[in-house]
């Protein structure tokens, strides 16, 4: 989905709030959230793709104003309700207040047709493809040309795996994109490598 | 599903929302309390940057290991007893050179090789780094204290699939010849993410 989470290349942000040795957690509740969602994945209540997608499905204003672990918590809670572990009303009674959740998901999809096997050195283009469900194609690479640098082992196809749809695992290709092609005259020069699922790629003309 | 307020009640403080989820798990007999304790211990004591530092120090002192690490990261770190979760099926070590600097980001969320370099620091998960690291890499690194000369090419790696990355930093020249154990102490989480050079 072209959601608010798809931040790569967005302008208007300021300096990274950075310190050497910065913490992972700021509060004990964050440690608990991290453990609880890990427990849910381990127990098979949901998988990592569903977890990531439930974060993406947060309403934009909530997503942008929430801390990282509040996003994690919102995903965890949304999936607990959607998977039938607890009714929303019960959850809010337990929390003694409103518990904002994510928006419903669009349907998933299986592997795209006409997948091509690529090898390092191949010139490729990211398809001009739009999909309202979970997709691990950041908007900044859509339609852009790149070169395959390497291939990774097959992974569950996110567009299906986040939605309980049957699909074959797919190889991903590390594709190198020039920033001059991604954001002409509007970026610091670099090669940006993105792990792109086979379904998202076509041969470059 | 209405994601806004239910009725006219205020949003519950985040700690109460966490407690609510914990109560749900408790009611289902999942025993969250001991799991939280052991998971937190694992996250803070076992998934530490020192794991990655050991990998780097060995790569610096053992050329054959370095080649194995670059060929198959997951298998190489396993030689040091380091494991990765099942869904992290591939680990790629990104070799810095005098003319190439690698830096890792996850623009879509926060993906990290956390069992090897530790869970991500707060800034890595924040909106500014995720938005700017791909498009303003040289500027962002300079702001973070790493001012690279123009002849050093930057390669950014956006972690979008289940491959995980770690930077293999350049060994500082003044440490050539140091024993492996001493080298472990100088490798930082920041250098393995790629926002610092050693």
Question: Any overview of this molecule?
Answer:
- The complex is a heterodimer of chains A (205) and B (198).
- Chain A is built from seven helices and five strands, in the order αααααββαβαββ.
- Chain A is of the alpha+beta class and 205 residues long.
- Chain A folds into two domains: 1-103, Orthogonal Bundle (Cyclin A, domain 1), CATH 1.10.472; 123-203, SH3 type barrels (Roll), CATH 2.30.30.50.
- A five-stranded antiparallel β-sheet of chain A has the order 4-3-2-1-5.
- The radius of gyration of chain A is 19 Å and the shape is globular.
- Chain B is of the alpha/beta class.
- Chain B has two domains: 1-46, no CATH class; 48-193, Nitrile Hydratase, Chain A, CATH 3.90.330.10.
- Chain B contains ten helices and four strands, in the order αααααββαααββαα.
- In chain B, the strands form two sheets. Chain B has a two-stranded parallel sheet.
- In chain B, helix 3 packs across helix 4 (63-71).
- The mean pLDDT of chain B is 95.
- At the A-B interface, helix 1, helix 2, helix 4, helix 5 and strand 2 of A face helix 1, helix 2, helix 7, helix 8 and strand 3 of B.
Write a brief structural summary.
By secondary structure, chain A is α+β, with helices and mostly antiparallel strands. Helix content of chain A is about 30%, strand content about 15%.
Name of the CATH superfamily of the largest domain in chain B: Nitrile hydratase alpha /Thiocyanate hydrolase gamma
Tally of strands of chain A: 5
Q: Please list the strands of the largest sheet of chain B in the order they lie side by side.
A: 1-4
Write the H/E string of chain A, N to C: HHHHHEEHEHEE
What fraction of the residues of chain B are assigned to beta strands by DSSP? Answer: 5-15%
Helical content of chain B stands at 40-55%
CATH superfamily of the largest domain in chain A: Nitrile hydratase, beta subunit
Uncertain runs of chain A are none
The proportion of residues forming helix of chain A, as a percent range, comes to 25-40%
Tally of distinct domains of chain A: 2
